[in-house]
Amino acid sequence: MDVALLHGLLLLLILPVLLYRYCATFHYFCKVTFFNLWVLAMATLLSPFAAIRGRCVENMKLLCAAIRPLKHLYGIKIEVLGAEHLNLKEPYVIVCNHQASLDLMGMVEVIPKRCVPIAKKELLYMGTVGWACWLSGIIFIDRQRTGDAIDVISQTAETIRRENLRVWIFPEGTRNQSRSMLPFKRGAFHLAVQAQVPIFPIVISPYWDFFSSKEKKFTPGTFTIRVLPRIETRGLSPKDVPELTETVRKTMVDVFSEMSSNPCRDWPAELPLLPSTGATKGTDGVWHDEDTTGTSD
Ligand SMILES: CCCCCCCCCCCCCCCC(=O)SCCNC(=O)CCNC(=O)[C@H](O)C(C)(C)COP(=O)(O)OP(=O)(O)OC[C@H]1O[C@@H](n2cnc3c(N)ncnc32)[C@H](O)[C@@H]1OP(=O)(O)O
Ligand SMILES: CCCCCCCC/C=C\CCCCCCCC(=O)OC[C@@H](O)COP(=O)(O)O
């Protein structure tokens, strides 16, 4: 009886190990659960320290430091190209494609100082995770209430200039693992135009090789983050937003396709970008290059 019990116990111990080793779906769920538990645990541990400082963007540093070890735990290599573009003293808006929660791992590799993401308000209700996000100055929007979301974005346009902040937005508005990008929401572009600050597009290469929530795949792997040159919005008005949105999306989709078809990551140092670096749109509707000397750190 005792031996049978022992065998049962051993099997109970070994079974998860075997499942983890040989069942891809179980492996996937374990890794995703660990990711969420890690975030929850870190938020719980760090929120009291962040609370001492109160709600402030400096707490983003704590949040980022807590997420950074995850890439080592998952065996994920992240390559960042073009990070130097972000060395601007002035405020700006970052727009980035959004494939999965794993984007957090890439985001913390490249996010500049004094930068806050815009997030769906549902995150706010995730216990200590919401608390940590709020304490770090993350801006919440209700995607179901466009009017309210627009108000928040308009206030943000004033805040980023007043407090010299950067804002990180996922303009697809939701996670997307398709072969291209979803149509872009216009909030990020209204924000940049209203604040008259530049936009930096960031493209994260596809995770297909190592991660797919549909196929329940999560293995070690590599991805690349490409920071594209800035796109000026000075002189643009709200009527230019639809075209600006489409131009930026097309640029990002082109880079994403390039990254998808070149898994060896053998990209040219500078990809052609429309509009080009430091371009502004003149009254004639044409994008003009301008001198950006002295704007970088
Ligand atoms: C210590 C450890 C802790 C760990 C802690 C870990 C967690 C750490 C998390 C950090 C990371 C967060 C990551 C979160 C990731 C997301 O939560 S993604 C989801 C949230 N993000 C978004 O939704 C993207 C931003 N959304 C937008 O920009 C959308 O435009 C809005 C404002 C929500 C409106 O949405 P919509 O109505 O569906 O779409 P849209 O067609 O764009 O707009 C409708 C109309 O309003 C106009 N409009 C839009 N915005 C404006 C505006 N600002 N002014 C004037 N008109 C506007 C549009 O132009 C359009 O009008 P027309 O041009 O058609 O005439
Ligand atoms: C008292 C309640 C306690 C609840 C505790 C919940 C614990 C949850 C723990 C960890 C959550 C980790 C969240 C990481 C968030 C990463 C950002 C993200 O990817 O958000 C999704 C959002 O972009 C788009 O959402 P949808 O694709 O539209 O959906």
Automatic annotation (TrEMBL):
It is an enzyme of class 2 (transferase). Coiled coil: none annotated. GO terms for biological process: phosphatidic acid biosynthetic process. The chain crosses the membrane at residues 35-52. Residues 275-297 are annotated as: Disordered. Keywords: Acyltransferase, Lipid biosynthesis, Lipid metabolism, Membrane, Phospholipid biosynthesis, Phospholipid metabolism, Transferase, Transmembrane, Transmembrane helix. CDD domains: LPLAT_AGPAT-like. One of its GO terms (cellular component) is endoplasmic reticulum. Converts 1-acyl-sn-glycerol-3-phosphate (lysophosphatidic acid or LPA) into 1,2-diacyl-sn-glycerol-3-phosphate (phosphatidic acid or PA) by incorporating an acyl moiety at the sn-2 position of the glycerol backbone. The HXXXXD motif is essential for acyltransferase activity and may constitute the binding site for the phosphate moiety of the glycerol-3-phosphate. This is 1-acyl-sn-glycerol-3-phosphate acyltransferase. The gene is LOC107325038.
